[in-house]
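To fix ideas at the outset, we first show an illustrative case, written as a sequence plus integers encoding its fold:
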Amino acid sequence: MSIAEFFLLLGGVGLFLYGMTIMSSGLQNAAGDKVRTILEHVTSNKLIGIALGVGVTVLIQSSSATDMMVIGFVNSGLMSLVEAISVIMGANIGTTITAQITAFDLALFAPVLLFIGCVMYLFMKKPAVKYIGMIILGFGMLFVGVSLIKDAIRPLSKSAEFKSFLSTLNKPILAVLFGIAFTALLQSSSSSTVIFQTFAIQGILDYKIAVYLVIGAAIGSVTPNLLAGLTTNRDGKRTAVLNLFFNLIRAAILLILIGVFPQILDFIVSLSPHDVGRQIANTHTIFAITAVVLIAPFSKYIVRLSEILIPELPEEARLKEGKKLQFMSTNNSMIPSVTIKQAVLECTRMGNMALENLNKSLECFFTDKGDYKELDAQVRATESIVDFLCSEITDRLVELRTLDMSDADAFRASKLTIVASNFERISDHAINIIEYRERLENHNEKMSESANKDMRVLGEKSVKSVELCIQIFSKENFALLAELERNENLVDRIHAEITDKHVERLMQGKCDPTSGIVFTDMSTDLERCSDNALNIATALRARKRNY
């Protein structure tokens, strides 16, 4: 191969990869948020999960993008590992469509596709039309890239050195390993499979060697997911690992099947006897479907394997246990008055978590130690539980509206949704406080001693308001309400006083810009925590006098 032909090969591969990227971006933009919405509705039903994985991957033409979204959903707690593996298995089937498309010889139409796609993308104003133009443009680039690769490698069919290199891949294990390495380099199983397909079409790669390269490509395709998993929580890492386990098990099963029943390959060849490109595409698709059919019934064991490799930490167990309603029944026939009493208990539990978060966020903010990250993580984990409880409690109370309730129960149900919302806001303010600490760290700034002292006083009084509101709400002990109102007035007065002092420091140039903004925002957050506490404490009081 000459230097020019080598550069032509590189250009073809580059254009093909860029075409895949453009096409995938166009498809994702055209789909908008529909793809994410689809994945958010994944259930524990394996067939539905697999079908969604296939559909989404065909829609966006990228199994890696699908897997990345799945990792993101699991990382944020929107999807379980059991649901994730179903989607991942479906994505492995959906990604085979690319090889099926490139098995058609559409190089003659590629220039037309490039022209149409370019006109639509550059000159049309409607976003939907521009996205369609991106898709067409990507298709055109894809086929031109394949055409360039074919032209570049044609001389290799006469190269004794290249044929000698390929002959070293006649052992299945070596071919699989090469497929893994090649795909890990390209970070796209679709791209590497199409390149193997092109080599076979040019007659320089034997079909049976290509089969093992395709098996290896599936394993190599998990490289981007493993890299993405490094920046996620432990469930996100487990998602990336179970994807690897699935593809390793898939490869082992396929190698055993081919070794025991070599007639399988003969059958696939017989489907397209004179078209090796189609044979490889069919192999890719049939292998993916076969692997999913055989592995899907045992997918829970793959999930378990990932959990063994990355074991559950005590904090994770607490998080999982926290994301459950402990008092409210899931039985829709429950008596409304009983459900409302249970909701009070759930709200009290939620309030204690919000109080814990507020205390820990203040500890995180004021600590002089550099290892505040552990407190940061604890606050964020508890916040996710509080968010869950707020949503679940509210949904359950809303369901009561369909039942016959007394006026008193209807009043209490509506007020409890307000209570849950206010507790959730207190926890949100706690998150803001730990983010203020991060902001100061990032700018290498600190608040002055006098500012810290003022903020500590405001924080203590705000915490006291939240403590009192929980006591009042949980036991409906309105005798403590006068004390809370006095404390709330004190918080308002302190907030006003320290704000005036802060303005004086700013005028005298004693505050750094970032710390000045943090002081203002944080004092407002703490004052609002006290406001939320008063809202909670008085929520059930007004109507109670009438019963």
